[in-house]
Amino acid sequence: MFKHDLKIVLTLAQKNFILYIKKGSVLIFGLLFPFFMLISWILGRSISPDQIIIGIISMTSFFTATAVSPVILPIETREKSLERLFAAPVSLMQILLGIILASALYSFGISSIITLIFLLIYRILALSFISVLAIYLGIFLMALLGSLIGLLISAKPSDQTSDIMVIINLIKFPLLFLGGVFIPLSNLSTYGSILNLVSPLTYLTELLRGVVNKSSIIPPGFNILILCIWIALLSIINYYIHKRTMPKRFSEVSNSKNMMKKVKLK
Amino acid sequence: MLQTMPNHIVHIIAFMICCRLFSIEIFHETKATFFNCHFTKGKLIYYFSIDNINTSLSVVNSNMTITINPAIKVINLQKKFGNIKAVDDVSFEIEEGSIVGILGPNGAGKTTTIRLITGIFQLGSSSQVQIFSNDLTNSPKLLKKKFGIVPEISNAYSDLTVWQNLRFSGTIYGLSNKEITTRAEILLKRFELQDKTHAKTKTLSKGLKQRLNLCLALLHEPPILILDEPMTGLDPFSVNIVRNQILEFKRENKTILITTHNMQEAERVCDRILIMNKGKIIADETPELLLKKIKPASTMVFTLKNDLSYEQNTELNSLFPLMEQKAYQISIVSNTPFKDIMKLGDFLEKNKLSILDFKLQESTLEEVFIHLIKNDIKGGINNVQA
Q: Is A252's CB within 8 Å of B112's CB?
């Protein structure tokens, strides 16, 4: 039974992976956006290679992780394929896991390659095997966490990806600026540090700082623990919120209400 | 109940022995008719039909009870969207192997009813859906495998190929790769889609997409097929293919629930018709009975030389409640046309009105259906009957 359930999750993830990684919004917000942000951050500034590696890894994994998961449900609602899944012997949990897995794999894949390239250029010889492993564990956890954040935002029962992308960007940027990517936690005031602890990205950047140049305030093990707690919490919240909002995706009345709102606005 | 026997003589003897051995009880004064038979694939098939499908037949002896239950049993279905009652206390049963059509205007609650039956919407505490006597809420995953669903608008993944869609569907229904390949090849051949196997779904025409939907619905060999407006927007060739397939499913003893706007289509394929309006079932009849009730209506169509005054309009409306006016042209649905022509003549003479033309045409089922829905079909049917 478990084997069959797992097979369904993998099939759903495979389908999501094939269908959605080439979508315009995924390419723009997952690849182009962080690339140009990095360029504008690095160019013309004297930033240490360690700082660049930490920034690039954190930003790539955060942006790629939050790129795929928010677009799947709105698109599948619009194309009615979500209804097909619900009429099939597939549970809500399996549908959500399929989305998280596809999104996390996409993020982990791209972030891993970019991390490897930058480690080879700058630091690979100076880092131990355990440190490299810790970096990859951090990327993997951020891939899961970012996917869960994206999925949570897509709980709004909309069939328009633009609706979701607006909200996700409103949440993503404050989390990025509070995440210690640009200013390390150690350089912030007490209040600033407390505020930074709200962003889950802080724990990835702190983990990377601890591994790359031992300049973190929070110990690496604690960062991993906090990232795991975030993942567990968001998984539970996601399940209950999606369970609540999912029927609204199939409601013709709510869809037509949305349509009426749009017509009125136009 | 369908029984397949090697030859009819053995069957008749066996049936007589069974009648002697078991005491057959048919509850609720149901009339049972036996036999109706034809040959299929060299075997004689007997149909044992029960007139009242709401009744179960039990074969009883001292130690044994066999009860034949409906394929779908729906009890007190309800669904609200905000303050709107989309489905309001709907109950019905569908006998195994029969084709039941749900008819109704847009927003009548047909699709919501299907979504409740197929488990897409969660059932309320007082609602119950039974599939072959098993409660849907108790084992949804298992029972969802009993359905094959063909939607009105294709919901196959548009960026996947026909084959990828079939593979995906087969896997989530728990089929092995070998089963998927074998069955998909048969279905693609049956629906003439072999040439499109590796074409992306978005490149297919609407008719081809609908055929793919049928393939997807049949891949896991479900005993129940649910078709939501399967012929809407299709060209006559595709309509013919879909219609023939529906009749083929019936021969395969599949239970079919079909929603449609099209009265003629429903009349052609359905054994029973449920008419829904405003979330309620307002008629539940065989097509023959339904036709008997509403077919005699005719439509008087005439064009006035001058416009009607407000008082004249009110008077004409009170004489003919099922009247429709488009500029100078007036249509009146009438169940007693000759009496109504006299009435109309009196009205025109009294008001000194002239008409340019007049024709009496037999109403199409569609026209009558629309009129009846407009005037709350329950009252409408009763009026027509009266």
A: yes
The residues, ordered by sequence, that sit 6+ positions from A244 with a Cβ below 8 Å of its Cβ are none
| The 3-state secondary structure of B226-280, one letter per residue | EEECCCCCCCHHHHHHHHHHHHHHHHCCCEEEEEECCHHHHHHHCCEEEEEECCE
pLDDT for residue A240: 95
Where in chain A are the domains?
A: 29-37+48-251
A7–B contact, CB cutoff 8 A:
yes
CA atoms within 13 A on the CB side of A85: 29
Closest to A58 (Cα-Cα) out of A37, A89, A82: A37
Residues of B in contact with A2 (CB under 8 A): none
Q: What are the strands of the beta sheet with B37-40, ordered from one edge?
A: B2-5, B43-47, B37-40
Interatomic CA distance for residues A202 and B295, integer angstroms: 74
- Residues A60-100 pLDDT 10s: 899 899 989 999 999 999 988 999 999 999 999 999 999 99
For the cut 60, the answer to whether the pLDDT of residue A14 exceeds it is yes
**Most B-contacting residue of A6, A8, A15 (CB-CB within 10 A), to test interface:** A15
Q: What domains can be seen in chain B, in order of their start residue?
A: 2-67 (no CATH), 98-108+144-292 (3.40.50.300), 298-362 (3.30.70.980)
Q: How far apart are the first and last CA of chain B?
A: 36
Chain B residues with CB-CB distance to A18 below 8 A = 159-160, 164
pLDDT in tens, A180-228: 777 777 777 777 777 788 888 889 998 988 888 777 788 889 999 999 9
Chain B residues closer than 8 Å to A256 by CB: none
* Rounded-to-integer distance, Cα B18 and Cα B12, Å: 10
**Exposed, middle or buried: residue A183 (CB in 10 Å: 0-12, 13-18, 19+)?**
middle
Say what the ipTM of the complex is.
Answer: 0.84
Does B156 contact A90 at a Cβ distance shorter than 8 Å? no
Q: Give the type of residue at B254.
A: K
